[in-house]
């Protein structure tokens, strides 16, 4: 079955599919690298704030650098999540636009909640 599919493809299709997905692959790798360092920063910060209480955490978020790094962490996390879930949807349900839209809406909703929380804490 696979052999017949491979034989049906023209050389032009092979050239097109050869480069398809390279951008997504690189984006997934770069977001992974960024998340590694941002997660280390977030864990180190959380460990330092663990015993200091709510007011210290609020003061931490009010520092523009910390708020920016938190926002970057959430944006990159949701971008990485979207790409990973989208790859799974495309692998198992290649023609399902509804699932791809649901994935996008889910990631945007979680991102909006996270960034809204950072904004409210920064303005408090």
Automatic annotation (TrEMBL):
Cofactor entry: heme
Q: What biological function has been recorded for the protein in this entry?
A: Membrane-anchoring subunit of succinate dehydrogenase (SDH).
**What protein name applies here?**
Succinate dehydrogenase hydrophobic membrane anchor subunit
Q: What is the lineage of its organism?
A: Bacteria, Pseudomonadati, Pseudomonadota, Alphaproteobacteria, Caulobacterales
The answer, when asked if Electron transport is one of the entry's keywords, is: yes
Q: Where are the transmembrane segments?
A: 30-51, 63-82, 102-122
A Pfam family of this chain: Sdh_cyt
Assembly information from the UniProt record: Part of an enzyme complex containing four subunits: a flavoprotein, an iron-sulfur protein, plus two membrane-anchoring proteins, SdhC and SdhD.
Keyword Disulfide bond recorded: no
NCBIfam families recorded: succ_dehyd_anc
Matching Gene3D superfamilies: Fumarate reductase/succinate dehydrogenase, transmembrane subunit (1.20.1300.10)
Superkingdom of the source species? Bacteria
Q: Main localization of the protein?
A: membrane
Stated membrane topology is: Multi-pass membrane protein
The protein's UniProt keywords, in alphabetical order, are: Electron transport, Heme, Iron, Membrane, Metal-binding, Transmembrane, Transmembrane helix, Transport, Tricarboxylic acid cycle
Give start-end ranges for the coiled-coil region(s): none
Which biological pathway?
Answer: Carbohydrate metabolism; tricarboxylic acid cycle
Q: Which InterPro entries match?
A: SQR/QFR_C/D (IPR034804), Succ_DH_anchor (IPR014312), SuccDH_FuR_B_TM-su (IPR000701)
């Amino acid at each position: 079955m696979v052999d017949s599919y491979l034989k049906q493809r023209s050389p032009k299709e092979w050239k097109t599919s050869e480069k398809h997905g390279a951008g997504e692959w690189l984006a997934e790798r770069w977001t992974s690298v960024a998340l590694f360092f941002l997660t280390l920063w977030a864990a180190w910060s959380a460990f330092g704030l663990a015993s200091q209480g709510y007011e210290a955490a609020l003061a931490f978020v009010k520092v523009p650098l910390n708020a920016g790094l938190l926002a970057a962490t959430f944006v990159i996390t949701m971008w990485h999540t979207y790409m990973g879930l989208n790859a799974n949807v495309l692998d198992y349900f290649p023609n399902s636009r509804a699932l791809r839209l649901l994935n996008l809406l889910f990631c945007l909703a979680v991102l909006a909640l996270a960034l809204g929380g950072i904004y409210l804490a920064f303005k408090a």
